[in-house]
């Protein structure tokens, strides 16, 4: 899971551009809603919530996810890490 998180975190700026219409994008975080799951991608970690309840984080060197979200988190990380960022680069 840490490898997937690392790939997502390394591409934070591209991800922010791609998701600006599908999530809440701020300077240092992107919030994605997939009811009841909420994913908050920050510059150094990715947090997972069910409703308002925190269920853990994953980053480049750590994974502290609860059993409640671990499978959904893996699927989300695979999806976010699997995006072809160069293909979606914004053209000037």
Task: Give a description of the structure.
This protein is of the alpha+beta class. The protein has one domain. The chain has helices spanning 2-10, 12-18, 70-81, and strands at residues 24-25, 29-34, 37-42, 46-50, 53-58, 63-65. Strand 1 and strand 2 form a beta hairpin. Helix 1 packs across helix 3 (70-81). The protein is globular and about 30 Å long. Residues 85-92 have low confidence and may be disordered.
Q: Keyphrases for this structure?
A:
single chain; 92 residues; alpha+beta; 6-stranded antiparallel beta sheet; 3 helices; globular; disordered C terminus
Query: Main sheet: which strands, in order across?
Result: 1-2-3-4-5-6
Multimer state: single chain
State Rg: 13 Å
Q: SSE order, as H and E?
A: HHEEEEEEH
Number of domains: 1
N-to-C span: 34 Å
Question: Outline of this structure?
Answer:
The protein has 92 residues and is an alpha+beta fold. The chain has 3 helices and 6 strands, in the order ααββββββα. It has one domain.
């Amino acid at each position: 899971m840490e490898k997937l998180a690392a790939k997502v975190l390394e591409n934070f700026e591209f991800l922010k551009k791609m998701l600006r219409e599908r999530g809440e994008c701020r300077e240092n975080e992107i919030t994605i809603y997939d009811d009841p799951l909420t994913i908050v991608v920050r510059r150094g970690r990715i947090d997972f919530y069910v409703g308002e309840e925190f269920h853990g984080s994953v980053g480049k060197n750590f994974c502290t996810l609860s059993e409640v979200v671990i499978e959904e988190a893996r699927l989300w990380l695979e999806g976010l890490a699997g995006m072809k960022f160069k293909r979606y680069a914004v053209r000037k």
